[in-house]
UniProtKB/TrEMBL annotation:
Transmembrane segments: 289-306, 313-330, 350-371, 446-468
Superkingdom of the organism of origin: Eukaryota
Residues of the Neurotransmitter-gated ion-channel ligand-binding domain: 110-239
Claim: Transmembrane is one of the keywords in the record: yes
Zinc-finger is among the record's keywords: no
InterPro entries cross-referenced by the UniProt entry: Neur_chan_lig-bd (IPR006202), Neur_chan_lig-bd_sf (IPR036734), Neur_channel (IPR006201)
Organism annotation: Globodera pallida (Potato cyst nematode worm)
Protein name listed in UniProt: Neur_chan_LBD domain-containing protein
Cleavable signal peptide: 1-17
Length: 469
């Protein structure tokens, strides 16, 4: 008799529980044998009226039960259409929500780490982004389950649209690109939000190399769907690329991101494009290059303050030595980065301009110094040359060399002999007096020419500097 009562009780319990088992599906399909069974889900669905009263582990189990209900319902819908899946896989994880256009929103692209190889021009970034899409299979009535949002425990339980920076054929073999799901939240409306970590690599363009070391590296990324590429349509939220203040380190670079843009490529696949601009924020390299360049430029402009032409020549030769040393420094610091651009840095152009003009100035000074030592002037210069040289030497005192006239002062004394010794000068000494007088005029013309030439070279350096900048 007792056995009969127990058997009837079991039959009654099985009949009342059969709709629920039909609701959640077989346990082997969704892993209900791993700590969560159908009886526990039945307890949550029937007895829980306020989810805030659940403990953390109880709420996690409740979320599992809601997802299992949605997965079983999706499998029944697919089965009613003639598609049958085994117990190892279910359609909510293997099939996209729709085979029409699926709108995938990409937002909150955040950079946490980056590494720039300045010589190879490649950039590696790591961070996370947010993906949003709608899955009609994940809708439920919030009045039925008393919850409006659940968190999916594993990305393997749900179809997730991953992105890649290459085509699908090469993305799986690229060691520099990867994506991992960090969190998935589902709302009762079917809206899915996934936080996805990424690691991408790209090559940078340094067309701004002319302004080295203030040049800007422009590194662009092109993302496209990895799976179901023909139906996924990417959408941008219009927000620029962010940096994570908790983990991001600039490493001496200023990083700024552009607003992601979406466009269709010729193969009818949507691509998301965003660029990162990197500029050096450290002043050590700028100081290392600018101090020698500025020193050579200022010394070139102020060489004429040395009134003696010999001292000017020695100073210019010393400046030429400094310019060659600076050029060697620039070769060591700049030349290794010239491989991907045809531009020459502005600071290097200024050094080249100063070097060329300094060589011309040395040649000019050397020629004038040699001409002032000649004593073969038998004819005087033209009057216009004498007047012009006197005018130039009178107003441009900075170029006039007093020591160059030391021997000329003695010659001037011989042009008008003094009373105490003038009578002793014989006629044979008059031609040298005439030659000496002519030489004095020629030296004045040469000094004026030197002043004009140096002024023109200095003006050319200033104009060239302004033009280059």
């Amino acid at each position: 008799m007792k056995l009969t009562i127990l058997f009837l009780s079991f039959i009654a319990h099985f009949c009342t529980s059969q709709p629920f088992f039909h609701l959640v599906g077989p346990s082997s399909l969704f892993g209900l044998n791993n700590g969560i069974n159908a009886i526990e889900c039945k307890k949550y669905f029937e007895n829980v009226t306020d989810i805030e009263s659940l403990n953390h582990h109880e709420f996690a189990a409740f979320e599992h039960c809601v997802f299992y209900f949605l997965a079983n319902r999706a499998q029944q819908q697919v089965g009613s259409q003639g598609f049958h899946f085994g117990s190892a896989i279910h359609p909510i994880a293997s099939m996209p929500p729709t085979y029409n256009d699926l709108r995938l929103s990409v937002s909150k692209i955040t950079i946490q780490h980056f590494h720039l190889n300045e010589f190879m021009r490649d950039l590696n970034i790591a961070g996370y982004l947010e993906l949003r899409w709608n899955d009609e299979r994940l809708k439920w009535d919030p009045q039925q389950f008393k919850v409006q949002q659940i968190r999916i425990a594993s990305a393997n339980h749900l179809w997730v649209p991953f992105l890649t920076g290459q085509g699908y054929e090469t993305a799986l073999r690229n060691d520099y690109e990867s994506m991992e799901v960090r969190r998935i939240d589902v709302r009762n409306t079917g809206n899915v939000t996934a936080i996805v970590g990424f690691k991408f690599a790209t090559f940078c363009d340094d067309t701004d190399f002319k302004h080295f070391p203030d040049d800007i590296y422009r590194c662009c990324f092109y993302l496209e769907p990895m799976n179901q590429r023909s139906i996924v349509r990417l959408i941008s939220d219009g927000q620029p690329v962010f940096t994570d203040p908790k983990y991001f380190r600039d490493y001496g670079w200023t990083l700024s991101g552009t607003v992601p843009l979406v466009y269709m490529d010729p193969s009818n696949v949507t691509q998301l494009n965003f660029c990162l601009n990197l500029q050096r924020s450290s002043s050590s390299l700028k100081t290392e290059l600018r101090i020698p360049a500025w020193s050579c430029g200022i010394l070139f402009l102020f060489v004429p303050i040395f009134t003696n032409i010999r001292i000017q020549l020695i100073t210019k030769l010393f400046l030429l030595l400094l310019q060659f040393f600076t050029l060697l420094l620039f070769t060591n610091r700049v030349s290794p980065q010239l491989g991907s651009t045809a531009n020459t840095p502005t600071i290097l152009q200024v050094l080249e301009l100063g070097l060329v003009l300094n060589v011309i100035s040395i040649i000019c000074t050397f020629c004038v110094l040699a001409l002032t030592k000649l004593r073969i002037y038998n004819q005087p210069p033209w009057d216009i040359m004498i007047n012009a040289s006197n005018l130039i030497n009178r107003f441009i005192y900075i170029f006039e060399s007093a020591s160059d006239y030391q021997d000329l002062e003695a010659l001037e004394l011989q042009k008008d002999p003094a009373a105490d010794g003038a009578q002793l000068i014989n006629a044979s000494k008059k031609p040298p007096l005439v030659d000496n007088r002519f030489r004095s005029d020629w030296v004045g013309c040469f000094l004026a020419f030197h002043a004009v030439a140096i002024s023109i070279l200095s003006l050319a350096f200033l104009l060239g500097f302004v033009f280059i900048r």
